[in-house]
Predict the 3D structure of the following.
Amino acid sequence: MSSDTPTQPSRRRFLKSATASLASPLLIGSSAYAAAKQDEGSIKERLLAAQTSPVLRRDRLPEPVVIDSIELLRKGPQFYVRVRSKAGVTGIAMTNKQQIRYVYPIFLQKVAPYFEGKDARDLDQLVEGVFAHEMNYKWQSLPFWVCVSWMEFALLDLLGRTTGLSAGKLLGDPVRKSSKIYYANGDRKSPPEKVVDQLEALIAKSGARAVKHKLGMRMRYSEQSNARDRAMIPLARKRLGDATTIFCDANSSFDVKTALEMGKLLEEHNYGFFEEPVRFDDFEGTKAVADALSIPVAGGEQEVSMLRFKQQIEHGIVQVAQPDILFFGGFVRSIRVARMAEVKGLKVVPHMSGFGLGILHVLHFASVVPNSLDYQEYKGDKDGIPYEVIGTGKPLQTVDGEIAIPDGPGLGVDFPPDYLKQLKLVTV
C-alpha cells in the first residue's frame, strides 16, 4: 500500500511493490542474517536463514544482564511481569487480561523458572530453549506462547533500561519513527449503515486514513450475515471514498465458495486485503482462495508454529503475513516471520490484541521491519491504565492518523510509582 497512492493495489502490483523493497539495504536483525540475505542461495536456504538467524543485537549489549528475579504482579484484572537483574535494574511489561487470568500458572511454573539466572542477552536462544525445556513443546499453543511473549517483553524492557536503548534498537536498526494506523472495528451485529457510521467516527477521532471491518459471523456464516456483508462492502467504499484504504477480516467465517464470492466483491470495490477468508488451519482452502483472487489474502493470527508459518509463506498460501506478537511468542519469533516474508517478496502486518498495550508492541515491531505495511492495526486504548511515553509525559496518541514510536529505554513507557506500589504478588 504505497503512501503515495490513496487506493489499494491489486495483488500483482502489491507483490511487485513488496519485492521492490528488497533492493533497499537490510535493516533488520543481525549481521549474520544480513550476510545470508545477500547470498544468492536458493529460496529454501534463504528461508532457513531468515527462520534461524539471531534477532537481538547482542553487539549492543557488552555486559552480561543476569536475571535475578521474576515476579507476576496484579491489580484487579491487570497483570504485569517484573524482572530484575543482579545489577538491580528493573524491567516491567503489561500482560493481556484476556489470557493471563486463565494461564498464569503456566507462566509461573513452566516459563518463568527457565529464565531465572540466565543472561538476558541470550534472548534468541532462551525463547527457543524454553520451548524444549522439560517437554514444554507438549504445551505448544496460545496459552504457552503468550506466557513466553510476556517474559520477552519484560526482558526487552530490562535490557533497554540497562543500556539506555529502545526496544527497536535492541532488535535492529529502526526504519521509521512513526507509523500510520488502520483503525479496526469489530462490530458484526449492527446494520451496515451503523457500522460505517462507526468507521467514520473513528476516522474523525484519529485522523486515520485506513480502517478494517468484519465479515461473516466468526468461524461461521448465515444467509442473513451474507446479505449484510454484500451490503456493507459497497456502502463502506461509497461513504468512505477512494482516499480511504479499507481492509476486511472474516475471522475464518467462510467456505471456499462463499469466500470467493465475497472476495470478488471486495476486488470490485478496491479493498486492501482479505483476512482469514476460510478456516485459519485450512491451508488448501486458503490457497484456493488466494490463487483465484487478485486481492491479497492475509493470515497468521492464530498460528503458533514457525514451520507452519514458513509453509504458508513459501507456498503462497498468504500474501500478507500476520503474526500476532503476543500469541506467537514475542518479537524474536515474529521478526523471523517478517524476514521469511521478505525473502518471498511479501508484506507483513502483525495482528494486534486489543488489550495490554498491544499497539506499543506493534509499533516497536514496525520500527525495524522494512517490509511492513504502511498501516498498523489499532483498536484504541481499551484498558485505560495510567502510563506515559518516556520523555513526553503523555500516553500514546494518534496525530493525523499516525503514532510516534517510543524511543526511550526498553519499551519506552513508564507507569506511575504510586500505581506500581498497588500491585500485589501473584503465586500458585
Summary: The two ends are 47 Å apart (CA to CA). The chain has two domains: 59-169+417-425, 175-406. Confidence is low (pLDDT under 50) at residues 1-9, 15-31.
